[in-house]
Amino acid sequence: MSKLQGRNLVGLFVALSLAAGTASATNGYYTTGTGTKSKGQAGAGSANPQELMSLATNPAGIAFVDEAIEAGLSIFSPMRDYTTTPSQAPGACVAPGQCLLTVGPNDLSSENEFFPIPYVGMNWKLTDVDNLALAFYARGGMNTKWVGGTVTYDPYFGMNPGVTTPVTLPGTFGDGTAGVDLMQGFLNLTYARKISDQFSVGASAIVALQRFEARGLDNFAPFTRTYVSTFNPATGGQMPKNLSDNGHDMSYGYGGSVGLQWNPTEMFSFAAAYTTKMSMGELGDYADLFAEQGSFDMPSTWTVGVAVKPNERWAVMFDVQDIKYSDVPAVSNGIANLFNCPILPGGTDLEGCLGGNRGAGFGWDDMTVYKLGASWQYSDEWTFRAGYSTTDQPIPKSEMTFNILAPGVMEDHFTVGFTHKKASGNELNFSFMYAPEIDISGPQNFDPTQTVELSMSQFELEVSYSWKR
C-alpha cells in the first residue's frame, strides 16, 4: 500500500467514524476492547500486544508490534427492552413527588438495533527503540429510541398542588418518542520507547469528540434550574431551551494515557496503564439536562494485565480494568438530588435541579471488569482466540427511571476470533462477541408502587485487515 493510499484510507475512516451512530454499550458505555484481536479475547491482552490498536489500552504496547496500517469495521447490535408494572397509587405514596408520574404500564423494545463502528490506525518504527502510532476509533456510546407507551402525571404530588386530576400523555415520559443518542470518538497519537528488549514505556495524547441528542424529555422542564430559579407563583418560570429535542450537539476535549510493558521472560509479561479523564467542552444544547450546565466529561480508567505463554503457540491473558464513572457528575449523580429541587415541597437545593451543579443524573457506580483471554497459533497462517469478561453492571436498583434512557446493564461477554495471515504478511482478522440477556428491576423513582425492569442482550461482529509496512 502506498503512502497516498494510506492517507486516503485514514481520511475515509475518520469520516465514517464521525457519521456512525455509535452504541457499544457493553461495560456501561465502554467497549470490551479496541481492535479485532483484543475483542476476540474479550478485551484481555494488554500484556501481550498483538496489534497497533493496543495503544487504546496501553500505549507502551506498540513498541512490540510490527509496522502496519489497519482498518476495521464492526456491526454492533444491542437489544433493549423495558417493562413497568401497574401503579398501586393513590394512597401508597408518602414522600413529596413520589407519585409525580406513572410510566405506563408499558412493555417496549427500543428501535435502532444495528450500528456500524469503524476504526483505522497506522504505526511507525522511527528507530530501533522509538515508535509512533496514530489511530482514530469510536468507543462507548448509547442509543435508545422508545416509540409508543404512555405516562400519567399526577400534578397534586408535584408543582401544582391545586390540580388533582391525573393527565395521561403519549410516550415514555409524555413527550412522544423518547431516547438518547451518544457517540464518542478518539484521535490518539502515541509514542513508545523501548528501554530494553524486555521493557517499554509509552504515552498518548488524545483528542476526544462526542455527539449527543436527547428526545422526549420536555415534560421535565419544571425540574430544571432554569425554570425554578425564575419561578413566580403567578406566572410560573422561564421554560428551558436546552433540555430536549435540540438535535445533535457536539463537544470536544482532550486527555492522555501512560503505560508500561515488561517482559521479564519469554513465558511471562506484565502491563499497566492509566488513561486520564477526558476534559470535554459543555454540551450547551443540553445545559438544562446534564449537571453542571451541560458538562459531560469522559471517565478515567486504569488497566493491569498479565500474560503467560507456556510455549510459542499459546498465550493466556488476564486483565483487570477499572472505569471511574464517578468522574462524571452527569452520569454518577443520583436521581435523589432531584427531590431536593425547590419545585417540590421541602426541596431546598436549587443546584439539585436538572442542569444544576448537583443536578440529578443516572446514578451509575464505578465498574471493575475482569477479562480472561487465550490465543492459539494453530499454524503459520492461522491463529484462534477466545475470551470471557465479567463485571457488575453500574445501575443501582434505586436508579431505574432515568436509566430507561440508558440501560447499560451488561455483565458477561463471550468472544471468539481468528487471524488469517497471508503470504504477503498482511492479516485478515475476525471477532464475534455475545452478551447474554440480563435483567434488572427496581422501584420507579416517581411512583415506587411500580416496578421497572430493564433488559438487554448484545452481539457484535468485527472484521479488520492489516497491511504490513
Task: Give keywords.
single chain; 469 residues; mainly beta; three-stranded antiparallel beta sheet; 5 helices
Mean pLDDT: 90
Label the structural class: mainly beta
> What Rg is obtained from the alpha carbons, in whole angstroms?
24 Å
Kindly state the percentage of residues in helix.
under 10%
Q: Ends: how far apart? A: 8 Å
Major sheet: 14 strands, antiparallel, barrel
Low-confidence stretches: 1-7
Tell me the strand order in the biggest sheet. Answer: 1-4-5-9-10-11-12-14-15-16-17-18-19-20
Beta-strand content estimate: 35-45%
Question: Total number of β-strand segments?
Answer: 20
Shape: elongated
The sequence of SSEs as H and E is HHEEEEEEEEEEHEEEHEEHEEEEE
Helical segment count: 5
Short structural summary:
By secondary structure, the protein is mainly β.
Overall description:
It is a single chain. By secondary structure, the chain is mainly beta. Helix content is 7%, strand content 43%. It has a 14-stranded antiparallel β-barrel. Strands 2-7-8 form a 3-stranded antiparallel beta sheet, with no helix packed on it. A hairpin with a 2-residue loop joins strand 19 and strand 20. The longest helix is centred in the N-terminal third of the chain and has 17 residues. The termini are close together.
Write the layout of secondary structure elements.
Blueprint: H1 3-19, H2 36-40, E1 68-84, E2 101-103, E3 107-109, E4 115-125, E5 130-138, E6 142-143, E7 150-153, E8 167-170, E9 179-194, E10 199-215, H3 225-229, E11 249-262, E12 268-275, E13 279-280, H4 291-294, E14 300-308, E15 314-324, H5 329-332, E16 367-377, E17 382-390, E18 412-421, E19 427-444, E20 447-468
Antiparallel strand pairs: 1-3, 1-4, 1-20, 2-7, 4-5, 5-9, 6-9, 7-8, 9-10, 10-11, 11-12, 11-13, 12-14, 14-15, 15-16, 16-17, 17-18, 18-19, 19-20
